[in-house]
Write a structure and sequence with these properties.
The protein has about 210 residues and is α+β, with helices and mostly antiparallel strands. It has 2 domains: about 100 residues, no CATH class; about 90 residues, no CATH class. It contains 5 helices and 5 strands, in the order H-H-E-E-E-H-E-E-H-H. Strands 1, 2, 3, 4 and 5 form a 5-stranded mixed sheet that branches. InterPro entries: SU10_adaptor. It comes from Comamonas sediminis. This is DUF6682 family protein.
């Protein structure tokens, strides 16, 4: 059974011996969880990459808020699934200056994406409304406003995030007893889990 955010917060409260949330409130622990997600995204952006179908219309598409970075448009989503190649806007404008006004088609040949307009993707030829293309994106991290919401991080990394939340919790009272050492140990475990997983992934990767 997947570890939910609410369960993670309860587990942390039990470990810091504050199950009634006198010292660490649940909203405060949720803030720590959001910080854990953001830190994870900075250290392991590769774990937020996934394939996503985009439903497009016309020659211009605006990426959804849950997409942080467009990495590629790979193919059409129809039965033929023909490859879509990237081209430069200036090339298309020079060779086919009126391409934006062309009749919409059910299959896309090229896409254009400029990092200066990161949320905009252009398609040639213009697409019939509802045309589906396959993309590779890095998902955005969304701060949770309620602990009943689903996290942005893949389920298998929830235990790592728990260690980060414990690091933040113990850091609150770092001047007392061994809390500073406890905080440091949980931060080390968080980084170790991310590092061990990354090392294992690299070891299993095929040689180029």
């Amino acid at each position: 059974m997947a570890l939910t955010v609410a369960q993670l917060i309860s587990d942390v409260a039990r470990e810091v011996q504050d199950e009634t949330h006198v010292r660490w409130t649940r909203p405060e622990l949720l803030d720590y969880f959001n910080a854990a997600q953001r830190t994870f995204a900075e250290q392991r952006p590769d774990q937020l990459v996934q394939e996503l179908d985009l439903s497009i219309s016309g020659w211009r598409h605006e990426l959804a808020p849950n997409v942080h970075t467009l990495m590629d448009i790979t193919n059409n989503g129809n039965t033929a699934r023909k490859r879509i190649t990237k081209t430069d806007l200036w090339v298309l404008d020079a060779t086919l200056p009126g391409w934006r006004a062309q009749a919409p088609q059910r299959e896309v040949l090229h896409f254009m994406h400029d990092i200066r307009s990161p949320r905009e993707v252009l398609f040639y030829p213009p697409a019939v409304a509802g045309t589906v293309v396959r993309s590779v994106v890095q998902l955005a991290i969304a701060d949770l406003v309620d602990e009943s919401e689903a996290p942005s991080i893949p389920e298998r990394w929830m235990d790592a995030l728990r260690h980060f939340v414990l690091f933040r919790a113990w850091s609150k009272d770092a001047e007392y007893g061994g809390n500073k050492e406890l905080a440091a140990s949980h931060l080390m475990l968080f980084n170790q889990i991310l590092g061990v997983q990354s090392k294992a992934a690299n070891e299993m990767a095929p040689a180029m």
